[in-house]
């Protein structure tokens, strides 16, 4: 695409251009015309973002996810499911998770907003680690993943969106931010090694972690219902991501997040069972889009 054509028409600002510079060949021409440098850069590279609208016709406000990524969570999922430990691997996973809950309860007590924010920074790790390692395995062995790479990365992204939501509700203190960095660093490396050594144990631990998350969010809801936590309006990002009504409250948000955790519980216990039966994940269809 020629430089004159690149500067001839200035389209709307493009989010792909943040932090980039216009090529030197265009700098003088851009300065003379008074065009937006970032807009010209978009035209130069031919990367033009689309304009997205909500169902009511209003402009989509988010760059971090699109309309196609939103969904209405199935809140009717069975929250009471529990995988009873049946062997040594299950018992190790179960009691590991139970032991991790003790310091969490002591630190956060009933500050459920901060607890949720902290735990979501950890909850997004297993899916990313599992998806990444399966991705490399697929490359090394020239084999398909059965959709499990996408399913696990989808889980990680969903957990990250939980964090993006609770960031709007709870404002972490400096020591809580420091704790996040420390815990995430430790947990990522530990889970990375664990997944290499025993994917079955790793998925079982994640399944039990999700069971504990369900319990924590149930307590969160109970505190809201008692009036101990204000049932404030839901953040706009949550309303759009989960397709909630405009008058949704934080109680509605916690309800759909809890349902998400129940779905993640099912996915990870399912994955652990596949390994327990001596199979590879790719031998069973991955639950893509299971919300």
TrEMBL record:
This protein's cofactor list reads: Fe cation
Subunit organization: Homodimer; disulfide-linked.
Q: Does the keyword Zinc-finger apply?
A: no
Membrane-spanning residues: 116-136, 174-197
Q: How does it sit in the membrane?
A: Multi-pass membrane protein
Predominant location: mitochondrion
Query: What would be one Pfam family of this protein?
Result: AOX
Cofactor binding notes: Binds 2 iron ions per subunit.
Which keywords appear in this protein's UniProt record, sorted alphabetically? Electron transport, Iron, Membrane, Metal-binding, Oxidoreductase, Respiratory chain, Transmembrane, Transmembrane helix, Transport
Q: Where in the cell is it found?
A: Mitochondrion inner membrane
Superkingdom, natural source: Eukaryota
Q: Which reaction does it catalyse?
A: 2 a ubiquinol + O2 = 2 a ubiquinone + 2 H2O
Known InterPro entries for this protein?
AOX (IPR002680), AOX_sf (IPR038659)
- Provide the protein name: Ubiquinol oxidase
Keyword Transport (UniProt): yes
Q: What family does the entry list?
A: Belongs to the alternative oxidase family.
Enzyme Commission number(s) from the entry: 1.10.3.11
């Amino acid at each position: 695409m020629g430089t004159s054509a690149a500067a001839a028409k200035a389209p709307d600002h493009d989010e792909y251009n943040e932090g980039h510079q216009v090529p030197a060949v265009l700098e003088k021409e851009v300065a003379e015309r008074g065009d937006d440098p970032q807009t010209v850069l978009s035209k130069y590279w031919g990367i033009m973002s689309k304009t997205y609208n909500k169902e009511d016709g209003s402009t989509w406000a988010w760059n971090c996810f699109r309309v196609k990524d939103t969904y209405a969570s199935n809140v009717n999922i069975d929250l009471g499911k529990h995988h009873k430990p049946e062997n040594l691997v299950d018992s190790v996973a179960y009691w590991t998770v139970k032991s991790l809950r003790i310091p969490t309860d002591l630190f956060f007590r009933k500050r459920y907003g901060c607890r949720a924010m902290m735990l979501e920074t950890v909850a997004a790790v297993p899916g990313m680690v599992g998806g990444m390692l399966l991705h490399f395995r697929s490359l090394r062995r020239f084999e398909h993943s059965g959709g499990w790479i996408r399913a696990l990365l989808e889980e990680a992204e969903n957990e990250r969106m939980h964090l993006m939501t609770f960031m709007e509700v709870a404002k972490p203190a400096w020591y809580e931010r420091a704790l996040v960095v420390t815990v995430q660093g430790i947990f990522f490396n530990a889970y990375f090694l664990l997944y290499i050594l025993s994917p079955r144990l790793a998925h079982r631990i994640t399944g039990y972690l999700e069971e504990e998350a369900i319990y924590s969010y149930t307590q969160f809801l109970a505190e809201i219902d008692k009036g101990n936590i204000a049932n404030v309006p839901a953040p706009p990002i949550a309303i759009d991501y989960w397709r909630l009504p405009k008058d949704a409250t934080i109680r509605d948000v916690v309800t759909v997040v809890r349902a998400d955790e129940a779905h993640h519980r099912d996915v990870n216990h399912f994955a652990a069972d596949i390994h327990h039966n001596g199979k590879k994940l790719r031998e069973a269809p991955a639950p893509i889009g299971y919300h």
